[in-house]
Amino acid sequence: MRQLSKRVRRIRNRTILFFLATAVVFYLSSSRQMSDLERVKSKGALVMLTIPGPTTYFEDGRGKNGFDYIVAKAFADSLQVDLVVQVKPSLRGLLLAIGGPQGDFAAANLVKTKLRSGSLVFSNSYLDVTQQLIYRRGTSKPKALEELDGDLLVVTSSSHSERLKYHKENIPSLIWREQEDLEMNDLMRMVDSGGVDYAVVDSIAYLVNRHIYPRAGLAFDISESEPVSWAFAAHSDGTLMAAANQFLDHFRTSGQMVALKTQLLSQSDNFSVADSKRLGKLVELRLPTYEPLFRQAAKKHSLDWEFVAAISYQESHWDPRAKSPTGVRGLMMLTLDTAREMKISNRLDPEQSIQGGTAYLIKLKRKLPTRIAEPDRTLLALAAYNVGFGHLEDARILTQRSGRNPDKWEDVREYLPLLSKKEYYSKLKHGYARGAEPVLYVDNIQYYQHYLQLHSLSKQSLPLKKPESDTKADWENTQLPSI
Q1: Which is catalytic among the residues 315, 351, 410, 476?
Q2: pLDDT digits 0-9 by tens, 192-226
Q3: 295 to each of 35, 54, 303, 382, how far by Cα in Å?
Q4: Which residues contact 59 (CB under 8 A, 6 or more apart)?
Q5: pTM for this prediction
Q6: 437 catalytic, yes or no?
Q7: How far apart are CA 372 and CA 377, in angstroms?
Q8: Are strands 45-50 and 82-87 parallel, antiparallel or unpaired?
C-alpha cells in the first residue's frame, strides 16, 4: 500500500513538473511578440488604406488599378503576401485609421507635414508633387494668394489646408472652406463647372485630370516641391516601414518608378484646351448613341470599350456619315477593300462599321509575329491600321537595320517618319508613305482612350467594398489607364 502511495506521488510530481515546464516554455515563447513585419507575413496579407482616385486607386475594365495600388501591389509581392485594399471615404478617415485593425499603412499621395508627424511616421519618398492653386479659365487669373476674390475650397485634413494656414500668418485676409468628402478630381470638376472659384490640388492630380476638366486652369504654385510617402502609425515598431523603404529604394533605382510615372503622365503632353473641350462636348452629345456598340465589339474581342471608342473618335469624331476625299467612310473610316475583306455590306451602318473596324484591327494584330508582346502588339497594329501593314513592315525593317528592336513600338516609331524620305523608301518594298502620321495617330488614340477612361471614372463614385485579397496574377495583368 505504501509502495503504491509512493508511486502515485512520483507520477503526480512528474505530471506537475511536466505542466510547469510546459507553462514556462509557453510563457517564454509567447513573451516575445511578433514584429509588424512578421505579423504581416504570418497572416499572409498586407492591408493598404487608400482613398479612391485616378492617381491612387480605382477599378476599371482591367480590374484594380491606380499608381499607389500598383506600387503597393509590387511591395506585397516582394513580401510574398496578398495585398488587401481598404478604401476610406475621406482623407480624414484614412489618417485616423492608420495602424489600427483596419490597415497596416496608407498609400494615397500623402505628403509629410508637421501636423501629421505627430501621430504618423513616413517612408522614403517615391514621388514629388507641388501644391497648386487652380482657377476657372475665362475668369481673371490670380497671380498670388492676396489677389483671390471668391470661394476657395480644399479637402479637410489635407496638406493643402496646412499650407494655407501657414500662408495665413502673412496674409490675414486669406479665407477658404474645407470639405471632407472630396477628392482632388472633385475639386477640379467643381472649378471647371463654376461651382467654386478656386481650389488647391497636387501637381500630379492636375496633370492627370486636366484632360477631363479643361476649364480648370493652373494659376500658380503655393508650395515648393514636396515628397510623397507611405504613412505608418507612430506606435509601430518600424520593421514593416524598414521593409517598405528597402523596396521603394529598389523600385526607384531599378527605373520601375520612373517608367510607372511616365506611363501615368504619358498623355499630358498631348493636352490642348480646345481639343479637350471639343472632345468633352462630343462625349456628351454623340458618344452615348454609340457606346453600347463600342462595348459590344470590345467584349467580343476582349478589348476595352474606351479603346475602340478612341479609335473611332480619331477616325471620324463619331460621325457615322464621315467621308474622306479618298472615299473612306463611316465611324471607323473603312476603305471599300477593307469592308469587303471583313464582309461589311454597309460602311455607313454604325454597328457594321464598328464590328468591321475592330475585327480588322484584331486581324492586323494576328499578322504580327507571335513573339511580340503587349502593349507593343496593339500599338504596332494601330499604326498598321493607319499606314498599312506593308509600310509598318518596312519601318520595322529600317528599325532592325539600325540595330534597334523591330518588336518595340518605342523603337519603330522613330523610323516610321523616314518612310517619307526618298533615300529610305526607295530601297524598301512598299515605297513612299507619310510615316509621321501613324506616330501621331497612335499617340492621339492613347490620349483619347486615357480621356475616356478618366471620364468614366469621374462619373462614378467608387463603392466601398469588403476588402479583397489580390494575387500575383492580378498584378501582372494590371496597367495604368493607357493601352
Answers
A1: 315
A2: 989 999 999 999 989 888 877 889 999 999 999 99
A3: 49, 22, 9, 19
A4: 65, 462
A5: 0.65
A6: no
A7: 6
A8: parallel
